[in-house]
Amino acid sequence: MQRTYRISALLIVIALVLACAPTLAPEATQSPAFDPNSINTAIVLTADSAATQTAILKPATLTPSVTSFPTSTLPASETSTPTFIFILATSTVPSSTPTAEPTQDGSSSTSQYACRVDSKNPADDTVYAPGTNFEASWEVKNTGNGKWESDSADYRYVSGDKFHQASIYDFNKSVGVGKSTVLIASMKAPGSPGTYSTTWKIFIGKNSFCAMKITIIVK
Question: Is position 169 within any domain?
Answer without folding.
Answer: yes
